[in-house]
Amino acid sequence: MTSMTRPQPLQTFDASGDDIPLMLARSWADATFELLNSSKERRRRHHNLDSMHERVDGDGITWEAVEESLRKVWTTDCLLILSAANLEAWVRKLYIARRRRVPESLENLKRLRNAIEHLDEADLDEESWTATARTAVARTRGIGALPNQSLAIGVTGDGKLFGVMTHDELEGLVRSLLDELAQELDDHARDWFEFARSGR
């Protein structure tokens, strides 16, 4: 195996810093991690507000406050999926650029992203608060390709994002990149220390 075909580290540790694929992969990893935390926090807040409103034991908890918290959950979860899909795409490009084996894609992430981006083209059910595919394309690549052929709008009882993915799945996507970068940094530091200690 020549140096031209040998897998390369994700980082170079030289003065030039990150190249474009690494910078974009890092950027989307950071954004996805922040949105993961925000999604979990906003879901906790919404659950608490909704529970207090139902029990009528929340001092000044109005239905408007519950609805506002639901809107915040919805938009944060949408942005989380879009961010994670971009992270997955740039991790793929980064690994190809480094001649590395590309990590397996998360099942349904791309379909979920497509469903969210083209939600305005879907049929909306006001009773079940779900969206279903209306176009032929959406039936094969978007909402229709999801496990239940529908997209849940709001918060589902199973804790999944749109009734499809878990926070843990998305966190695994972020962690796999950040952990590998951290391991490379540790290896580089150890090699530098050994080199310095050898006096060469």
Verbal overview:
The protein has 200 residues and is mostly helical. The chain has two domains: 18-105 and 170-192; 107-164, no CATH class. The protein is 59% helix and 4% strand. It contains five helices and three strands, in the order αααββαβα. The protein has helices spanning 20-55, 63-97, 109-117, 136-141, 167-198, and strands spanning 123-125, 130-132, 150-152. A three-stranded antiparallel β-sheet has the order 1-2-3, with helices on one face. The protein is flat. It starts with 19 loop residues before the first helix and ends with a helix.
Précis, in short:
With 200 residues, the protein is mainly α. It has five helices and three strands.
Helix and strand topology:
Blueprint: H1 20-55, H2 63-97, H3 109-117, E1 123-125, E2 130-132, H4 136-141, E3 150-152, H5 167-198
Antiparallel strand pairs: 1-2, 2-3
Helix pairs in contact: 1-2, 1-5, 2-3, 2-5
Flag low-confidence runs.
none
Strand content: under 5%
Question: Rounded to an integer, what's the Rg over CA atoms?
Answer: 22 Å
Count of helical stretches: 5
As a percent range, the share of helical residues equals 55-70%
Inertia-based shape = flat
Order of helices and strands: HHHEEHEH
* Largest beta-sheet characterization: 3 strands, antiparallel
Number of domains: 2
